[in-house]
Design brief:
Chain lengths: ~800, ~140
């Protein structure tokens, strides 16, 4: 390989974006085979990561950095340690299967190429997120996942529900994104580094700071919104409007786990305090039970799975909150187990929906005969979810009980919570596995048959992986758990997973209790659902309705503010602008005593000596007279055209004054501006077809006249004030001295514009261009309205 | 306004103004002038032309949409700044090149191209606005 080991991590994060750009073209060329081609990218990433795994497992980290803004010390830095390796492998591995699956699921869809592009871009953002070392890069990828998931959830944009789900997910996760940005900035301010890998070594910096509470709240806010923790969980079920491959990818192992990843990543610097443990355990626990009960309430397969995802996220957050070695180990194993079985189950739900035409478990039954392979996939995944021995789910459960057994009474409460939560989830797993596939065959909207290979590969491989990993506890412990836990906790962790059913240990009995309760839940599912539905109907509102109320209120508020500020009365805008100008002119002059010089001093005696006429040549007087005449003509003009022309005369006289007093450039510009304003104003006025001159009420006339006089006097006074002081000529001296030698130009004004301050000019011409586009848009709208009218 | 005298004289005036605008723009580095003033003069000439011959005739004569000219100007100005990247200097560092053509030396420089960009932006934007205002029909916009 030509690339160095380190640089290839950057490639891992960036390759999916390249693939996303190519996806529509590949789809155009290869049609429905494009998914097979595009799946090479995530599969290649998996291979690459496995190559990189060896040094990481040995305890090292791999880092690569691309210079970003070197003058601020910012780098686009990536690094790979145990934690990011686990996440990245899961993302890329499941991603490859999802790309294949979407190829079959959306076969013949006109926008399949676009869909694959979104999916790959999302995968790239997610990989970037877990590999980013720089906190700003982390934020960037974090927001990229929000945006790409918005596109994916709203993919079916003709349906209102899909648009709503997409916007809701975007709003909620973006609130978290803002929290993350502010949190990262505060953390950088406190620690002096943008790099997570450096931050990890500065353990006390954040924890002992007075701002610890703030940083903690910001990071927890970011993680909770992304990972759908109660009470911000409601966007996740609504995001099920997405096509099933999206749900399977985003809501099992990737998008929603970003919050879990962030919490795991921040454990060394923020974790371990009583606030951290309290908040995470409390919210995680509530989310676990809430989600598990929510799952029992639903009958739609995807909704059931979405609710169990919420529950599992709560469980993961709870385990991170506990923070002990066993809890973190349990978190990692559970993450892997959950990613495998949940993605598998979502894909099964999609396959059932695709082939049978419905996802409602009350309308499905006996599909195992018609879709045997799908059933095997569902069964493998569900057994891992129940946590039977020989599956990876079993170890996850064992580990989390191990973390809590033998603690104080508070730990026992949490343990009880976990047993109940796991039992509910086990019950749901049995429902998902048994209801659609076993029992009496029910008539379905489509005559069900086996799904295509590309749609079966995911459930079977992931379900199989759950079992294989369960059979290889040594590998799981050594290659996944130990490096990951070491990365989170910051000290070496020894793997201790072993496959032994020790009847003397309490763990096995807790597991048995969980299974028993799970079977009870499964048997009583119908009764539980009725009770839960009655309860939620009795409550009358949900977080979802609150969200709608807030959004509606926000829009109403925005409309009110806009109407108040942007009322469309041009006259009033102008009054505001000029009153502001008058205040800006007079306030500093009065406050700083600038007007004292007007008052005649004792030596001079009276005003007549103070006011002296300047000594001007006769033609100079002529020009001044011209300006005054022009002004007077504006005031008395009977038609608009004459007023505009008179204003032009006044402006031209001003240009002449500039010319006479040695500012040819200014005079030139002033003249051209005058000419163009006369032309444009004339055209506008003739277009408007107004009366010759409107009759304004005296109040308006007096108000505008006073404002004009005040502003004019203010500008004049200010200019005179400027002339009383000594001019600081350092700048002009510098320009005069250097203009020819270093900028090769004798016209200082021009040299300043195009060379010394060229960057400003570049901005200004862009603004000129933008203003031109805006004016054209306004004119076009008016003309269209005219054209459409009678 | 649409008299025979004006209509006959307008093309002459416009041509003179356009040539003069280029002259003003190019001399700007050492004498009064520059891209901004040049652009203003050129835009004024287009406005005059529009009044005399009608907007469709001006658009045909221009061949390119005025806003496209303006966008080209922004691009030209931006790229003239980017050239300095090739000599590993910061953005917008000026580069001078003296071409010996016979007896005279023609100085070429990135600020000159920048100024020409400014010329195009001012010319294009103001012409677009003036033409849009002068036209009565939607299709002229």
């Amino acid at each position: 390989m030509g690339l160095s080991l380190d640089a290839s991590i950057a490639l891992v994060a960036l390759a999916p974006f390249l693939a996303a750009i190519l996806a529509p073209f590949i789809h155009r060329l290869a049609g429905s085979y494009s998914a097979w081609i595009l799946a090479i990218v995530p599969a290649g990433i998996v291979m690459l990561l496995i190559r990189l795994a060896e040094p990481v497992i040995a305890g090292g980290t791999i880092a690569a950095a691309i210079d970003w803004v070197p003058s601020y010390g910012l780098t686009l830095a990536f690094f790979l340690d145990g934690l990011s390796l686990v996440f990245a492998l899961t993302i890329a591995g499941i991603g490859a299967l999802i790309v294949l699956y979407s190829g079959a699921y959306l076969k013949g869809h006109p926008h399949q190429g676009r869909f694959l592009a979104y999916l790959l871009a999302f995968m790239g953002s997610m990989l970037g997120l877990v590999l980013a070392d720089n906190m700003l890069a982390l934020f960037m990828f974090w927001e990229a996942t929000s945006i790409t998931s918005f596109l994916l959830i709203g993919f079916d944009h003709n349906r209102q529900a899909a648009r709503r789900g997409a916007i809701q997910a975007l709003v909620i996760t973006n609130i978290g994104g803002m929290c993350l940005l502010v949190g990262a900035i505060v953390a950088q301010h406190l620690s002096g580094t943008w790099l997570l890998s450096e931050l990890r070594g500065l353990e006390g910096v954040l924890k002992d700071s007075a701002l610890y509470g703030l940083v903690l709240a910001l990071f927890i806010g970011a993680a909770f919104t992304k990972s759908a923790q109660f009470p911000l969980h409601f966007w996740l079920p609504n995001a099920m409007e997405a096509p099933t491959p999206v749900s399977a990818f985003l809501h099992s192992a990737t998008m929603v786990q970003a919050g879990v990843y962030l919490l795991g990543r921040m454990t060394p610097v923020l974790g371990g305090t009583s606030v951290w443990t309290g908040v995470l355990v409390a919210f995680g626990g509530v989310t676990l039970i809430w989600g598990a009960l929510g799952a029992l309430k639903e009958t739609d397969l995807k909704q059931i799975l979405a609710q169990t995802t919420i529950a599992s996220l709560g469980l993961l957050v709870l385990l991170i909150g506990l923070g002990s070695e066993a809890a973190i180990a349990a978190m990692l194993v559970y993450f892997v187990a959950h990613a495998c079985y949940k993605a598998g189950l979502f894909m099964v739900a999609g396959a059932v929906d695709h082939e049978a035409g419905t996802r409602d478990i009350t309308a499905l039954g006996g599909l195992a005969d018609k879709m045997p392979v799908t059933f095997i996939g569902a069964a493998l995944a569900a057994l891992s979810m129940v946590g039977l021995p020989l599956t990876v789910g079993y170890f996850a459960k064992e580990e989390m009980y191990l973390a809590l057994v033998g603690g104080d009474w508070l730990m026992l409460v949490v343990l009880a919570l976990l047993v109940i939560g796991n039992a509910l989830l086990a019950g749901v797993a049995l429902i998902v596995m048994i209801r659609p596939f076993l029992g009496d065959a029910l008539p379905t909207p489509k005559s069900a048959h086996e799904a295509p290979v590309a749609m079966l590969a995911g459930p079977i491989l992931l379900g199989g992986a759950g079992v294989v990993a369960g059979l290889l506890p040594d590998w799981l412990g050594h290659d996944v758990l130990a490096p990951g836990a070491t990365a989170i906790l910051g000290h070496a962790v020894e793997p201790h997973l072993k496959l032994a059913l020790d009847l003397a240990s309490p763990l096995i009995w807790l597991s048995a209790l969980t299974w028993l309760l799970g079977i009870v839940v499964f048997r009583q599912a119908h009764a539980i659902r009725t009770v839960l539905r009655r309860l939620s109907a009795g409550l009358g509102w949900s977080a979802d309705t609150v969200f709608d109320a807030v959004m509606f209120g926000l829009i109403r508020f925005a409309a009110t503010v806009t109407r108040a500020l942007h009322h469309g009365k041009l006259e009033f805008y102008l009054v505001v602008v000029f009153v502001a100008l008058a205040v800006a002119l007079f306030w500093p002059m009065l406050a700083l005593g600038g007007l004292d010089w007007i008052v005649p001093t004792a030596e001079l005696g009276d005003w007549s000596k103070r006011l002296v006429l300047p000594e001007l040549r006769p033609y100079e007087w002529g020009v001044v007279l011209l300006a005054v005449l022009g002004l007077l003509a504006v005031l008395i003009a009977q038609s608009r055209l004459i007023a505009i022309l008179s204003l032009g005369i006044q402006g031209t006289a001003l240009a002449l004054i500039f010319l006479l007093f040695g500012a040819p450039d200014l005079a030139f510009t002033q003249l051209m501006v005058e000419v163009l304003s006369v032309v444009i104003l004339t055209i506008v006025m003739t277009n408007l077809r107004l009366d010759a001159r409107d009759h304004r009420p005296f109040e308006d006339w007096a108000r505008d006249g006073t404002l004009a006089v005040v502003c004019g006097a203010g500008v004049s006074l200010l200019l005179m004030l400027v002339l009383t002081g000594t001019l600081d000529t350092r700048l002009s001296d510098f320009f005069t001295a250097t203009s020819v030698p270093i900028a090769h130009g004798a016209n200082i004004v021009n040299v300043i514009l195009v060379d010394y301050r060229g960057f400003d000019t570049l901005g200004e011409i862009s603004v000129v261009m933008g203003a031109g586009i805006a004016i054209l848009a306004l004119l076009r709208r008016r003309k269209k309205a005219e054209g459409a009218g009678p | 306004m649409n008299t025979v005298i004006f209509r006959t004289a307008a093309p002459l005036i416009v041509a003179t103004m356009l040539v003069f605008s280029v002259y003003v723009c190019l001399r700007g580095h050492n004498e009064p002038g520059g891209g901004f003033i040049g652009g203003l003069i050129a835009a004024a000439s287009i406005a005059v032309f529009g009044m005399a011959s009608g907007v469709p005739a001006v658009r045909r004569a221009l061949k390119v949409d005025p806003l496209a000219i303006a966008s080209f100007g922004v691009l030209l100005a931006g790229f003239s700044g980017l050239l300095s990247l090739f000599i590993h200097a910061p953005f917008m560092t000026s580069i001078w090149l003296y071409l010996e053509l016979g007896d005279t030396t023609v100085p070429l420089s990135t600020p000159m191209f920048f100024d020409i960009g400014v010329y195009f932006v001012v010319f294009g934007t103001l012409s677009a606005i003036a033409l849009a205002l002068e036209s009565d029909h939607e299709e002229d916009l």
